[in-house]
Amino acid sequence: MTIRDISEFTGSLKPRNRFLLAAKIPGRLQQLKVNIGDKLTYGQLVAVLDDHEYQQQMEQARALLEVARANSRAAFQSVTISTRELSRVKSLRTSNISTVSELDTARDSFSLKKVAYEVAKAQLAEKKASFKLAQIRLSFTRIHAQWRNKRAHLIVGERFVDEGTLLSINTPIVSLIDISSLVAVIHVTERDYYKLKVGQPVNITAEAIRNRTMKGRITRIAPVIKESSREATVEIEVSNPGEILKPGLFIRAEIEFAAHHNAVVIPQSTLVKRNGVTGVFRADLAENKARFIRIKQGISNNGLVEVLTPKLSGDVITIGHHLLEEGSKILVPNRKSNSRRHSGGSTKTVPGQHRGCCQRSTLRA
User: Fold this and answer.
1) Residue 283: phi, psi to the nearest 5?
2) CATH number 3.80.10 given to 265-359
C-alpha cells in the first residue's frame, strides 16, 4: 500500500502585515474617520488633529520668511551699488583723480556689502527651511494611511483612542492589518525539525471553520531551537480566499514529509523486541513454528509500520507474541475454519507449548 509520513501541529494565525498608525506630533484628536473592520485604500484620511497652533506657527514662519527675503533684496542692492562705486573709484584712480585711500575704502565697503549679502542669503535659506518645517508639521495634523503595496486593501484591526483624546508623539490610534493571506505560526520539535523545507505544502484546518481545508506553504524556519521547550518556530503562508480565516484563530497544520508507494507494511501490534533487536514473529506454517525476523522500519502511520528490509511475506503473529521465542511451537487451525472458529485474534492453547496466535495477513507489494 501507499504509506505516508504525516505529522500534525497546532498553532495560531497572524496577519501577513500589521502596523500601528500613530501621531507624529502632539495634539488633540479632533476627528477619527474610521472604525474597527473598515477597509482602507492607500492614502485614505484616517484622523484629524486640532491644527490651530500649527496654523499659527506656519503664519509666523511665513512672516519671518518675507522679512528674510526683503533683507536679501536690500543686501543685493547694496552689493550692486558698492560694485558701481568701486568701478568709479578705480576709473578715477587710473586718471590720478582719486587717491589710493579712497580706492581702499571703496574696496573695503564692497567686501563688507558682499559679506552682508551672503549672510542675508543664508538667513533666507534658514527661514525657507523653517517655513517648510511648519508646513510639514501642519500636514501631520491630517493622518493618512500609507503602506508599501499601494494596491493592497488593509483593514482596521483595533482602535485605541477616541475623539477628544490628547495625543503625544507616536501614540497609536488604530492598527491596520492585511488578511488577504495569513501566516500560521507553529512550533516543531527536534524530531520533525530536520524534515522541514521552505516551500513544503501544508494543509491548514481551523476548528471554528469545519469541513474547510486551506492550502499553505512553509516560508520561514527558525534557525534556533529554544532550550526551554526544545521547539523551533515555523511560519506558514496561508491563502485566505474570501478572507474567511481571521488572525488569532487556533489551527491545525498537517505536513506530509514523505510518501512511499507500493510499500510492504505490517500492523504496529506485530512488533516485538528480543535482545534489543526489533522484529516480528512470522508463522512458519510448514513446521508450525514461530520465526523471529529482524526488520528495518520505515514510515509509521495509523497503526501501520513500513518494512524496508528484509523482503517479508506470509503470516505474522499479532497476539501472544510476548510469550514466544525463536522456534517456539505454534498451532494454526486449518485455514478454512480459522476465519470461522478463531476470528478476532483468539488463541488456541496447546499442552506443553507456548501460546500464540497468527493473523492471516498476506503482505503484497
Assistant:
1) -85, 115
2) no
Which residues on neighbouring strands pair with residue 29, listed in sequence order?
49
In whole angstroms, give the CA distance from residue 47 to residue 21: 10
Rg for the chain, CA atoms, rounded: 43
**DSSP secondary structure letters along 13-47:** EEEEEEEEEE-SS-EEEEEE---TT-EE-TT-EEE
DSSP letters, 216-282, are EEEEEE-S--BTTTTEEEEEEEEE-GGG-S-TT-EEEEEEEEEEETT--EEEGGG-EEETTEEEEEE
> Please, are residues 262 and 311 in contact by the beta-carbon 8 Å criterion?
no
CATH 3.40.50.720 fits 17-49+144-176, yes or no: no
Q: At 101, which amino acid appears?
A: S
Q: Contact 283/358 with Cβ under 8 angstroms?
A: yes
Question: What's residue 347's pLDDT?
Answer: 33
What the block records as the C-alpha cell of 8 is 500534525
CB 295 within 8 A of CB 323: no
Instruction: Name the CATH superfamily, with its identifier, for domain 3-15+182-259.
Output: Efflux pump adaptor protein, beta barrel domain (2.40.30.170)
What are 46-64's pLDDT values in tens digits? Answer: 999 999 999 999 999 999 9
- Rounded to 5°, the CA angle 78-81-87 comes to 135
Helix (H, G, I), strand (E, B) or coil at 351: coil
- pLDDT tens readout for residues 81-138: 888 888 888 888 787 787 888 888 888 888 999 999 999 999 999 999 999 999 999 9
What crossing angle do the helices spanning 100-139 and 52-94 adopt, rounded to 10°?
A: 160
> E strands along the chain, which residues?
3-22, 27-32, 39-40, 45-49, 142-144, 154-159, 166-167, 172-189, 201-206, 209-221, 231-239, 250-260, 265-267, 272-274, 277-284, 289-294, 296-301, 304-309, 316-319, 357-359
